[in-house]
From TrEMBL:
This is Efflux RND transporter periplasmic adaptor subunit. PROSITE patterns: PROKAR_LIPOPROTEIN. Belongs to the membrane fusion protein (MFP) (TC 8.A.1) family. Gene3D superfamilies: 2.40.30.170, 2.40.50.100, Helix hairpin bin. It holds the Pfam family BSH_CzcB.
Amino acid sequence: MKHASTYLKFLFISLLIAGCKTTEEDSAAQNESTSPPASTITVSRSQFESNQMQLAPVVMTSTAEEVRATGVIDVPPENRASVSPVMGGYVTHTPLLVGNKVNKGASLLTLENPEYVKLQQQYLEERESLKYLKEEYERHKELLKEKITSKKNYLRAESTYLATRSRVYGLEKQLQILGIKTDRLEPENITTEISLTAPISGSITEIHIAKGDYLQPSETAMEIVNNDHLHLELNVFEKDILKVQEGQEIEFRIPESSDKSFRAEVYLKSNALSENRTIRIHGHIPDSLRNVMVVGMYVEAVILTGDKAENSLPSVPEEAIIEKDGNYYLLFLENETADEYIFRKQAVSPGQTRNGLTSLEGLAIEEGARVLSKGAFDIFQ
C-alpha cells in the first residue's frame, strides 16, 4: 500500500507539471502570433505627438539626365569697378565704409597734390596766350590777302597759334579727367584738391586706403559692385560639354550658407576650353534673389540636360532616410489606430536629391504611401 500511494503521488505531480508546461507553451505561441514582427516599430499616439513626429507622403518625381558643376556668384564686368586716380595725391578725406551704397558720380574720396596747381596754372597761361596768338594769326591772314606781309610770317603765326591751341585743348581734357571744370577756372579759384567719383552705382566692397596715404596713379583705392544683375559662373568638364545647351534649367545651392536650392537658367556657353579642360557656363539668376546673395559665394549646381518626362521615381523627404552601418532605411506607416502608429522598416537605395526630395531606386512603392519624415532616427532600432 505504501508503494502504491507513493506511485500515485508521483504520477499526479508529473501530470501537473506537464499541464503547466503545455499551458506556458500555448500562451507563448499566442503572444507570438499577436505581437508585431521584429521588422515593425510601434509608436503610441502620445509619444508621436510629444516628440513632434511628422508623416510625409511618397511622391513621384521626374528624373532627368544631369550635369554637375561648381562655380561662384558673380556680376558682369560692367557692374564691377575699381577706383583709381589719373594723377597721384595724398588722401585728405575718405568718409565711406565697406557696405556703403553710392550713386554714379558721387564723391568717394579727396586727394591733394601741388601738381594739380601746376596743371591749372599751365592751362590758364596757355589759354591767355591763345587769345593773343589767335589775333596775331587773324591779322597775318588779312595782311597776306593784301600782300602786305610775307607768307613765311603768316605760316609762323598760324603754326604757333595751332600748336598753342592743341596744348590748351590737351590741358583742358586732363583737368576734366581730374574733375576740374575748366569753364569756371580762374586764377583766384585754383584748387589743390580733387575728388574721385564713383564710375558706377553700387556698394563699396573693398577699401585699400586711409587718410594720409599717398595714392599712386593706377593704384586701386576702392572697389564697387552693382548687384543689379547677378549671375552664375559655372565650370563644366570637357566630357559634359555637348550635353549643356542654352535655356536648360539649373538647380544650385550655396553649401556654406544653407541646403536650400535655387533655380537659374543657362544663358551663355563658352566656346573655348580653359587650361584645366573646362568650359565656362553663364547662368541667369532671378532678380528676386538679388538682395539675398553676395558676389563671390561658392555654389554647387546641377544642370538638367535631359527630358524630365522620360522617367519617374518615388521620392521622400531627405530627412526621412536613416543611415546605419552603411545601409539606408525608411519607416513606412503600416497601420494607424486611435492609440498607436505601426511602422515597417524597409531598406532602400537612395538616388538623386533635389529640392529636399530624395528618389528611391529599385523599389516599387505606390504614390501616397506615407513615411515617418521627422523623428525616425530617434526610434529606429
